[in-house]
Amino acid sequence: MIQLQRNYRNEDFTSNGEFAHSAVRSYEEYLSLARIPHCEGVSGRVVTTLHQRVGHSDLSIDRVAEDIGLSKRTLQRRLQQQNANFAQLRDDVRFNYAIKYLIDDHMSVDLVSKALDFSDRTSFTNAFKRWTGLSPSVFRKLFRDYA
After folding, report:
1. pTM exceeds 0.85
2. Contact status, residue 136 vs residue 112, Cβ threshold 8 Å
3. Structural domains in the chain plus CATH codes
4. How far is CA 99 from each of CA 28, 31, 139, rounded to the nearest angstrom?
5. CA dihedral 133, 141, 59, 28 (to 10 degrees)
6. In the chain, what is the greatest distance between 2 CA atoms, to the nearest angstrom?
7. Which mean pLDDT values do the consecutive 10-residue runs of the chain (147 residues) have?
């Protein structure tokens, strides 16, 4: 496993859709990055609602606003007043659960994509690459022994 991580760190990827000089972090660093920051007020209510919905319901702003008892526009305004936005809060929650589902729960990439309410596997893979610099399958191969 350690050798695989070293090999992956040393690979130079070309510009054909892969990352150039990808910097792989430790599992603990990824967990730290995926930690959801403490939120209060409307942001806290959004995060709590997203936690309750993950894996069960859609994570759209319309549904979350409905659960909180606000209109979509009012929710957006109140988040803006707290220097927050819905998309970022949802991404924070998704990233947190993505690592949990991939490593701890050994879920397939397709199931994780569905549980986190992505439109398809490709959308999830692109988001995961944005968060970690790695595809979900490479991430799992590198860190599957941590569960």
Report:
1. no
2. yes
3. 38-146 (1.10.10.60)
4. 11, 8, 9
5. -70
6. 52
7. 46 40 78 89 96 94 97 97 96 96 93 96 97 94 80
